[in-house]
C-alpha cells in the first residue's frame, strides 16, 4: 500500500501541508483567498510540538491494524483491502466518535463547524490519490512510498 | 473445516471476517435469531425515525455473498451437543468443526412487583425492542424510562425525537452516572430537560400497576408517588446471553470447551463495541489454529454525543484521595484530568474532543507523564513520538 512516510527531523513546521490539506477540499479558490480560521476549512493533518520544541507531524497512518475501524459501530470507517487506506463514509457515520477516542495517536477529530462527521485523511481520493500535503511540503519531511500492508 | 458462528452482532461479524481473511476455503455458517445485521448502538436512531433498518447495518450490502458466508437467520439455537459437535435449533441441526457463541446479552428486568407479565414494557437491546417502542410510543401519552444511563438516555433521545416527553427515573443523582461526572452530566441533563424530558433522581420504582387488559398503567415511586404510564422502557443493564455455553470458565484463548469459543457480550466481560470486535477476531484466529491470547482491553471508556455535544470519558470519573485533579472550563467546554503519581487515571473531555485519542492510550498503558516539561493541557503524542520501519506510529515510552 501507499503511505505518507514522515521524517520529522526535516519538518520546519511551516504548515504548508495543513494549508494544502484545507485547500484540497475546496471546490474553487486558491490558497491566497482561503480563510485559515474558518471552521469550514479544516486540515486533516497537523504539526505537534514536543517539549523540546521539535516539530512532530501528525498524519493519519492508515494503520495496518486501525483502532478507528475496530471501534466503528456503523461501518463508516473501513480499511480497503485493495488500497490499504482507511476510508470514511460520513453518510454511514452515526457520530458516536468512538474512533476519535480510540485513535491512540490522537489524529482524528469531529468537524468544528457542525460536529457531525469525522475529519479524516482520505489520501486525496479526489486528487488521484496524490496527497496534496506531500506535493506542497518544501523540505521533504513527508513523501509517499509503497510499504508492506 | 466448518465454522459455525451463533450471532450476527459485532463479535460474530468480526469473527466471520477474520476467519475469511485467514481461511479462504473454510466453510462459514452464521446462525441468528435476528433477521438483519444492525448496530445496536444505533437503535435510538431507529426509534427517533432518523434511520431505517438498512441504515443501521454495519456491514456492506453484499457482506454474506461477497465473503462466501451462509446465513441461517430467524433461527434460535436451542442446544449445543458438544459430544457430537452439533448445534440444534427448531427444525434441524448442523455439525461444526469449530463453534463460536456470540449470542450477546439481554436486558435485565429487575424483580419489581407487578412488572412481570404486564404488557407495554420493553428493554432496549434488540431491533424488535426498538420497533415495539417506536410503534407503541406513537399513541402513548405517559412514557417512563427506568435508567438514566447511556441506554436509558438513548431511549429518551429517540422518544424526544418523536416529539414525546418521557419521564426518566433513576436511583443515581444525575444522568450517565457510570460515564460522566456531575458537571459534564448536568450539561446533558439540561439539554434533555429543554427538549421536554423530566428526570426523577434518587428514587426507585417500587411497583408497576396494570390495567384490566394486563397493560402497564402506572408506576409507583418509592412506595408512595404514582406516575401514570402507558409505555415503560427498562434500561437498567444487561445480562450475558450465555445459556448455550458448555462451561462458564473461559480460557485466555476465549475457549469454553473443545473447539467451542465465545466472544462479545456473551463472555460476561465488561463490554464495549471495540472489545466485542477484538474478541471476535481473537476467537476467530484461535478457531483457525492461529494461537492468539486475548488481552482484556480498557473497558472503562466511552464517548457520549447527544444534542451535538460530544464527550469522552476514560478511566476514573472522580479523584481518589491523594490524586491530582486538573480541571479547565470555558464556554461549552469542560476538561478534567485525574492523575495518580504522574500517571493519568481518568479523563473527561466535553465540548471539544479534537485529536484527544492519545488520552485513552496514556490511561490504558499507565504511562507516566510527570517528567514531560509542559502543561498537562498541552499533552499530545509528540512527546512519545516514534515511527516504525513501515512508517506507522509507535509510542516511545
Main sheet attributes: strand count, strand direction, barrel closure of chain B: 6 strands, mixed
**Radius of gyration of chain B, taken over Cα atoms and rounded to an integer in Å:** 23 Å
Question: What is the share of helical residues of chain B?
Answer: 10-25%
Mean pLDDT of chain B: 96
Description:
The complex is a heterodimer of chains A (149) and B (397). With 149 residues, chain A is of the alpha+beta class. Chain A has two domains: 1-59 and 126-149, 2-Layer Sandwich (Alpha-Beta Plaits); 62-120, 2-Layer Sandwich (Alpha-Beta Plaits). Helices cover 15% and strands 19% of the residues of chain A. Chain A contains four helices and eight strands; from the N terminus they run βαββαββαββαβ. Chain A has helices at 16-24, 67-70, 98-102, 132-135; strands at 2-6, 46-49, 55-58, 77-79, 86-88, 109-110, 118-119, 142-146. In chain A, the strands form four sheets. In chain A, strands 1-8 form a two-stranded antiparallel sheet. The longest helix of chain A has 9 residues, at 16-24. Chain A starts with a strand and ends with a strand. The model of chain A has no long low-confidence stretch (mean pLDDT 96). With 397 residues, chain B is an alpha/beta fold. Chain B has three domains: 2-104 and 241-287, 3-Layer(bba) Sandwich (FAD/NAD(P)-binding domain); 121-234, FAD/NAD(P)-binding domain; 309-395, Enolase-like, domain 1 (2-Layer Sandwich). Helix content of chain B is 20%, strand content 30%. Chain B is built from eight helices and 26 strands. Chain B has helices at residues 10-22, 43-47, 63-66, 127-138, 150-161, 182-194, 273-287, 358-364, and strands at 2-6, 27-31, 70-72, 77-81, 86-89, 92-95, 98-101, 105-107, 121-122, 143-146, 167-170, 198-201, 205-210, 216-221, 225-228, 231-234, 238-240, 255-257, 260-262, 301-306, 309-315, 324-330, 333-340, 343-350, 385-387, 393-395. Chain B has a six-stranded mixed β-sheet with strand order 3-2-1-7-19-18, with helices on one face. Chain B has a five-stranded parallel β-sheet with strand order 9-16-10-11-12, with helices on one face. In chain B, strand 20 (301-306) and strand 21 (309-315) form a beta hairpin. Chain B starts with a strand and ends with a strand. Classes of the chains: A alpha+beta (149), B alpha/beta (397). At the A-B interface, strand 1, strand 2, helix 3 and strand 6 of A face helix 7, strand 20, strand 21 and helix 8 of B.
Amino acid at each position: 500500500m501507499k503511505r505518507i512516510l514522515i521524517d520529522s527531523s526535516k519538518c520546519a513546521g511551516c504548515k504548508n501541508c495543513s494549508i494544502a490539506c484545507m485547500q484540497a477540499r475546496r471546490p474553487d479558490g486558491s490558497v491566497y483567498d482561503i480563510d485559515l480560521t474558518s471552521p469550514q476549512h479544516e486540515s486533516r493533518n497537523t504539526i505537534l510540538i514536543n517539549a523540546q520544541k521539535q516539530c512532530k507531524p501528525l498524519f493519519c497512518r492508515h494503520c495496518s491494524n486501525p483502532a478507528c475501524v475496530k471501534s466503528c459501530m456503523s461501518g463508516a470507517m473501513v480499511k480497503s483491502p485493495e488500497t490499504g487506506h482507511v476510508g470514511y463514509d460520513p453518510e454511514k457515520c452515526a457520530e458516536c466518535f468512538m474512533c476519535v477516542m480510540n485513535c491512540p495517536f490522537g489524529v482524528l477529530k469531529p468537524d468544528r463547524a457542525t460536529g457531525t462527521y469525522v475529519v479524516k485523511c482520505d489520501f486525496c481520493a479526489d486528487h488521484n490519490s496524490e496527497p496534496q500535503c506531500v506535493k506542497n511540503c518544501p523540505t521533504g519531511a513527508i513523501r509517499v512510498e509503497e510499504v508492506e500492508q | 473445516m466448518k465454522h459455525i458462528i451463533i450471532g450476527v452482532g459485532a463479535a460474530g461479524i468480526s469473527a466471520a471476517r477474520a476467519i475469511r481473511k485467514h481461511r479462504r476455503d473454510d466453510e462459514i455458517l452464521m446462525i441468528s435469531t435476528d433477521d438483519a445485521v444492525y448496530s445496536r448502538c444505533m437503535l435510538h436512531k431507529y426509534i427517533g425515525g432518523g434511520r431505517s433498518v438498512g441504515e443501521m447495518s454495519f456491514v456492506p450490502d453484499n457482506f454474506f455473498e461477497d465473503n462466501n458466508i451462509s446465513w441461517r437467520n430467524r433461527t434460535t439455537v436451542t442446544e449445543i451437543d458438544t459430544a457430537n459437535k452439533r448445534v440444534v435449533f427448531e427444525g434441524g441441526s448442523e455439525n461444526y468443526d469449530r463453534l463460536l457463541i456470540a449470542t450477546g446479552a439481554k436486558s435485565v428486568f429487575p424483580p419489581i412487583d407487578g412488572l412481570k407479565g404486564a404488557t407495554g414494557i420493553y428493554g432496549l437491546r434488540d431491533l424488535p425492542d426498538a420497533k415495539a417502542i417506536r410503534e407503541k410510543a406513537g399513541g402513548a401519552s405517559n412514557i417512563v424510562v427506568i435508567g438514566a444511563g447511556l441506554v436509558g438516555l438513548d431511549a429518551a433521545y429517540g422518544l424526544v425525537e418523536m416529539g414525546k416527553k418521557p419521564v426518566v427515573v433513576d436511583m443515581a443523582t444525575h444522568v450517565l452516572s457510570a460515564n460522566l461526572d456531575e458537571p459534564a452530566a448536568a450539561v446533558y441533563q439540561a439539554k434533555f430537560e429543554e427538549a421536554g424530558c423530566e428526570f426523577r433522581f434518587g428514587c426507585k420504582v417500587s411497583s408497576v400497576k396494570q390495567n384490566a387488559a394486563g397493560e402497564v398503567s402506572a408506576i409507583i415511586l418509592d412506595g408512595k408517588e404514582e406516575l401514570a404510564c402507558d409505555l415503560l422502557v427498562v434500561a437498567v443493564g444487561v445480562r450475558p446471553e450465555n445459556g448455550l455455553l458448555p462451561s462458564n470458565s473461559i480460557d485466555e484463548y476465549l475457549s469454553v470447551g473443545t473447539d467451542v469459543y465465545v466472544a462479545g457480550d456473551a463472555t460476561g466481560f465488561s463490554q464495549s463495541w471495540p472489545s466485542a470486535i477484538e474478541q471476535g477476531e481473537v476467537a476467530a484466529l484461535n478457531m483457525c489454529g492461529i494461537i492468539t491470547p486475548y488481552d482484556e482491553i480498557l473497558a472503562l471508556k466511552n464517548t457520549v454525543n447527544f444534542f451535538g455535544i460530544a464527550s469522552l470519558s476514560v478511566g476514573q470519573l472522580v479523584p481518589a484521595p491523594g490524586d491530582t485533579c486538573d480541571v479547565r472550563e470555558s464556554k461549552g467546554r469542560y476538561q478534567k484530568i485525574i492523575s495518580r503519581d504522574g500517571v493519568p487515571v481518568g479523563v473527561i473531555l466535553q465540548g471539544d474532543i479534537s485529536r484527544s485519542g492519545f488520552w485513552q492510550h496514556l490511561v490504558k498503558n499507565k504511562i507516566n507523564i510527570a517528567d514531560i516539561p509542559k502543561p498537562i493541557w498541552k499533552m499530545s503524542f509528540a512527546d512519545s513520538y516514534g515511527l516504525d520501519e513501515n512508517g506507522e506510529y509507535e509510542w516511545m515510552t
